[in-house]
Amino acid sequence: MGVDIEESVGVQYVADGGLDGFGYITSEDFRTTRVALQAKRWDRKVSAPEIDKFRGAMDKYNAEYGIFVTTSDFTRDAMRVAKSGTRIITLINGDKICDLVARYHYYVEEVTTYKLKSFYTNNE
């Protein structure tokens, strides 16, 4: 999705420096931005302290932009904290992950489905 991942930062399970990924995004006007990535596969909601920890890891790597992804959702405090400060963190929850997978066709294939109209299902 346009992120050039730096393989030496955060792409390991342990001792990742607080990041799950780090890379660069180059915009259409050729401006390159350092981006930090964090991903959580959780059943419970991600809370504000997790966002704060991520922001600290962003500082460590001088990231200008952050993306925090979870399979669950975020608490209201986490959403508020993500928008505070000088660097807004983009939050992607489970529903948005599904939207992105469909939009970019990651690991999916399109199928066509049909639904019968009421004429065929009417039991009168």
Automatic annotation (TrEMBL):
UniProt entry keywords in alphabetical sequence: Hydrolase
Name of one Pfam family that matches: Mrr_cat
Keyword Magnesium: no
Domain annotation Restriction endonuclease type IV Mrr: ranges: 10-100
Single GO MF annotation: restriction endodeoxyribonuclease activity
Keyword set includes Ligase: no
InterPro entries tied to this protein: Restrct_endonuc-II-like (IPR011335), Restrct_endonuc_IV_Mrr (IPR007560), tRNA_endonuc-like_dom_sf (IPR011856), Type_IV_Methyl-Rstrct_Enzyme (IPR052906)
GO BP term, example: DNA restriction-modification system
PANTHER family assigned: MRR RESTRICTION SYSTEM PROTEIN (PTHR30015), TYPE IV METHYL-DIRECTED RESTRICTION ENZYME ECOKMRR (PTHR30015:SF7)
Protein name, UniProt field: Restriction endonuclease type IV Mrr domain-containing protein
Lineage: Bacteria, Bacillati, Bacillota, Bacilli, Lactobacillales
